[in-house]
Amino acid sequence: MTPLPVAAKSDRPRVDAWPPRKRWWVVGLLKLRCPLCRRGRIFRGAITMNTQCPECRFVFQREPGYFLGSLVIAYVLALAGVTAFAFMAHAVFPALDWEWAFFTGFVLYLPVLPAGFRYARAAWMYFDHWLDPPGP
What is the pLDDT of residues 115-128, one digit of tens each? Predict the structure, then answer.
């Protein structure tokens, strides 16, 4: 009799990680992980997305134009960020006009823009996964 093949440790599903707990969705979003398994990375570079999850093979872009909804989230994040930076600039320099404070806030927000792009896309995927979970 030949022994049954044993799966390698990396092939075995992790009992502690599947299914993901509902309360961990915030942690998964902040770590930019897959909305389905919360283990695979969504991005492989600064702004380059994986086409599917490297862990569970969940396809991130369901259809062409899927991430148009993330533009709304990115806009809200940018508006909040620029406004916060403008208020900080006006608090540090009270003699600064509000126009210049908002211009300074915009300039200070520019380095944060790639992170806003990443989190907007991840938040859109988590929202869409909550609203319309993928079928079996």
Answer: 999 999 999 999 98
Q: How far apart are CA 58 and CA 38, in angstroms?
A: 11
Non-local CB neighbours of 34 within 8 Å, separated by 6+ positions: 28, 40, 41, 42, 53, 55, 56, 58, 60
Cβ-proximal residues to 53 (8 Å cutoff; 6+ apart), any chain:
34, 36, 37, 39, 40, 42, 60
CA–CA separation, 13 and 41 (whole Å): 17
One-letter amino acid at 46 equals A
What single letter denotes the amino acid at residue 109?
Answer: Y
Given a contact cutoff of 8 angstroms between Cβ atoms, the answer to whether 69 and 61 are in contact is no
List Cβ<8 Å contacts ≥24 apart for 13-20: 14/39
Q: Are 100 and 85 in contact (CB under 8 A)?
A: no
Each residue's pLDDT tens digit, 15-44: 444 555 566 788 888 899 988 888 889 998
Domain extents in the chain: 22-131
